[in-house]
Design a protein that fits this description.
The chain has 223 residues and is mostly beta strands. The chain contains two helices and 16 strands. The N and C termini lie far apart (53 Å).
Amino acid sequence: MPKNYIQEATSIKAIDIGLPPEISDPNVYTFGYGYGWKVNSNNGHYKVHHGGNVSGFSSQLVMYPTDNLGIVVLTNQNSSILPYIITDIITNRMLKLKRTEWTKYPVKVSEINLVSQEIKSINTEKKPTHILTEYCGKFTNLGFGTFEIVNENNNLYAVFPDYKFRLEHQYYDIFVLKATKEIPQGMNPEFYLNFSLDNEGNISSVKVNLQDEPVEFMKQAKE
């Protein structure tokens, strides 16, 4: 990678926060952005960093180029403050800075997706094309894996390794996932499921709006 590009990417192109340092943390100042990288000064040390959060994962990458120090922290936690705490502890130790007291670290509480108490019945004006038991079975996508749809007390459920969702009927062969237990807000569980039929009129697959283009899961033959 060209040296001049690295310099451009890690130098401030836009000011993020133009205010003076906060009283709670006066040693961190001059916030800005390079080419996607956050750039600021920490206790007089040039800092380039960026974090990341996906459902179930939180990370932080911090570099101090003039100190030849780089820190990467990966955690299996959703919307976690832990990567930031760990990078701060390592930074203070490696750069011989004053240790941050535990009481000074923020407590971050993520919102959760609550379980809906309302259970809607089948849309009688636009009924499913099949009886509910015919939607049951295992559905597979080579990239996303397999999940199973089961019928319990005349209600359909989608069963994944860690979560179980109730299928709420919308119209015809379209359902939406509804949580059966609290889920971190980082994950929005209300994906739409659109079932498809084969040439014989049997349920053959289901498309789930996991991405901009729906992901298709093929129904497995019964064992």
